[in-house]
Design a protein that fits this description.
elongated; five-stranded mixed sheet; about 10% strand; alpha/beta; two-stranded antiparallel sheet
Length: about 400
């Protein structure tokens, strides 16, 4: 690289090399001319020839410089044209790439907008579902609090057990086979009395709900609390068994047993799992502990007993109805026989009418042919008459 002022020349460029050579030759010629002009002696003939050669060489050099200049101009023009063509091609490619990029950007933005809209719609639906679930949770919380308030009061808890018992009994038995809140002869009021036939006789179902003892049993954290809760649970169940046995088992009025209805499957499972002695004591006192599930199974068995008893009670009526039905069938058979006789007589009368009509037709045909001799010669046959249902 050669720096001349602010310009830099590349020595590997052929144009630059040619220009530098031309400048060198021109500088040499100028030096020779200056030397000849400054020299006072007469120029010899060989030197004149040399000068002519130099002038000729200078003319050739000028022609070469002109050729180099023209070549450089053509090269610059071709380079400019090539650069313009390349710039046009690059510009076209850049425009195409920009168009493609803009199209992809638009597609991406459109897809992003659609996805955003879909996500917002799904988010809105989920928020609506969450709001609905929140409302249901709030309502359920209110129901749980209401149920807790009901179960925290002994009186309302008893009413809850009675309502559940009424619902189960009403689904399992006919309406005329039980009575709710019935008062017995000893003045005690039973939650439900099932009217079973003798034996075993009417049986009482009483609802009991030892919730405090059960909750204390599950809240116990120390051995002392657990022992106290077990004692309270055992005492509560025993008291319920004793009360039912003394109040609702009456000789000559009720069956020799009764049912204690526990309206909670958890309490029922706790009693049978951890207090089997209470179940045995209930059996000895003829008080059977039932849960909603086992109570439904027991009531279904009672329904079968009621059905059999009612069928036995209605056996006489069934026999009477069968006798009446047999008499009606015999009457129908007799009347069918009479009707068959009437139809047979009517069929014979119709056959006689057909024969008489045929003879009348033949006579009319002979009269029409003026065949009076045959008509007079032929004796009329008597018309058979049968006394049927339509005869006078």
């Amino acid at each position: 690289m050669i720096r001349i002022g602010a310009a830099e020349l590349d020595t590997s460029d052929p144009v630059v090399v040619t220009m530098l050579l031309g400048l060198g030759v021109l500088a040499l010629i100028l030096a020779l001319l200056v030397w000849l002009l400054l020299r006072p002696a007469r120029i010899p003939a060989p030197l004149t020839q040399q000068l002519h050669s130099l002038n000729h060489a200078q003319a050739q050099l000028s022609g070469n410089l002109q050729t180099v200049s023209d070549t450089q101009a053509n090269a610059q023009a071709q380079l400019i044209q090539s650069l313009e063509a390349r710039l046009a091609t690059v510009q076209l490619q850049m425009q195409q790439q920009l168009a493609q990029m803009q199209e992809r950007t638009n597609q991406t933005l459109h897809g992003s907008a659609q996805r955003t809209t879909s996500s917002l719609t799904q988010l809105q639906e989920r928020l609506a579902a969450i709001d609905k679930a929140q409302d249901n949770i709030t309502k359920l919380s209110g129901d749980v609090l209401s149920l807790q308030d009901i179960l925290s009061n002994k009186q309302t808890r008893g009413a809850f057990g009675e309502i559940q018992l009424n619902d189960i009994v009403s689904k399992a038995l006919p309406a005329d086979s039980y009575t709710m809140q019935v008062t017995l002869s000893n003045g005690r009021r039973a939650d439900c009395l099932i009217h079973l036939p003798n034996p075993p006789g009417p049986i009482v179902i009483d609802a009991k709900f030892p919730l405090e003892a059960y909750e204390a049993l599950h809240r116990a954290q120390t051995d002392w609390e657990l022992k106290s809760a077990v004692t309270n649970m055992r005492t509560s169940i025993r008291k319920h068994i004793r009360d039912i046995s003394e109040k609702y088992i009456l000789d000559g009025e009720t069956a020799d047993g009764a049912l204690m209805f526990l309206p909670s499957e958890a309490v029922y499972a706790e009693v049978h799992a951890n207090f089997p002695e209470l179940v045995r004591e209930g059996f000895e006192a003829r008080v059977w502990i039932v849960s909603p599930t086992t109570c439904m199974a027991t009531l279904n068995t009672m329904r079968a007993i009621l059905k059999d008893a009612r069928m036995r009670e209605q056996a006489g009526e069934i026999r009477k109805t069968l006798r009446l039905l047999h008499r009606d069938v015999e009457l129908v058979v007799a009347r069918v026989g009479k009707l068959d006789t009437h139809f047979r007589q009517a069929r014979e009368d119709l056959d006689g009418i057909g024969v008489a009509a045929e003879r009348a037709g033949k006579r009319a045909a002979r009269l029409d042919n003026f065949d009076f001799e045959e008509v007079e010669a032929e004796e009329p046959a008597p018309l058979p008459l049968t006394r049927g249902p339509f005869a006078p």
